[in-house]
Design goal:
The protein is α+β, with helices and mostly antiparallel strands. The chain has a single domain, classed as Glutaredoxin (3-Layer(aba) Sandwich). About 25% of the residues lie in helices and about 30% in strands. The chain is built from four helices and eleven strands. It has a five-stranded mixed beta sheet with strand order 7-6-5-10-11. It has a four-stranded antiparallel beta sheet with strand order 1-2-8-9. The protein has a two-stranded antiparallel sheet with strand order 3-4. A hairpin with a 2-residue loop joins strand 1 and strand 2. About 40% of the residues are buried.
Length: about 170
């Protein structure tokens, strides 16, 4: 499924592949790689309120700002909340980034191998084979309570709305 007109990079429109998810949908299961190359997916976070943030690349300024902000928030939210950042970056690059930037409360996962997350969450950018900037919040039962696809991938998400959705799901 291709969707046009949902996101852009500045003035350049981009095409998203995959479904348009909405609050009330079940969070799709997915497979991605952890920094140690082990497979990880939705079931690894069951029972928690889950924030899934997709970003184009951790090695870009806006993605760095977003990941640092979510890392700060994750530390304050406690053990009932998991924040996961998914990108197409290689697991080795994610590990290096997290070590260099002191990211320890956010889990980073790589979708580089199969683009499974990108396709199932509808955030794979056809033209770039990168993920669009988006945030999904799922409650403890795995139901999406918040979905934000950021219209311009060079902009940050609405952190206040994400945190309000997390609070409501707790």
């Amino acid at each position: 499924m291709e969707r046009s007109g949902v996101v852009s990079r500045g003035v350049n429109p981009l095409t998203l592949l995959g479904p348009a998810l909405a609050p009330g949908d079940r969070a799709p299961g997915f497979s991605a790689l952890a920094n140690d190359l082990s497979p990880k997916g939705l079931s690894d976070f069951s029972g928690k309120v889950l924030v899934l943030a997709s970003v184009p690349s951790l090695d870009t300024p806006v993605c760095e700002i977003e990941t640092k902000r979510f890392n700060k928030e994750a530390a304050a939210l406690g053990p009932d909340v998991a924040i996961v950042t998914v990108s197409m970056d290689l697991p080795f690059a994610q590990k290096r980034f997290c070590a260099a930037e002191g990211i320890g409360a956010v889990t980073t996962l790589s979708d580089h191998r199969d683009a499974d997350f990108g396709m199932k969450y509808g955030v794979l950018i056809k033209e770039l084979r990168l993920l669009a900037r988006a945030v999904f919040v799922a409650d403890r039962k795995g139901v999406l309570t918040h979905v934000e696809i950021v219209p311009d991938i060079s902009k940050e998400p609405d952190y206040d709305k994400v945190l309000a959705a997390v609070s409501a799901a707790l």
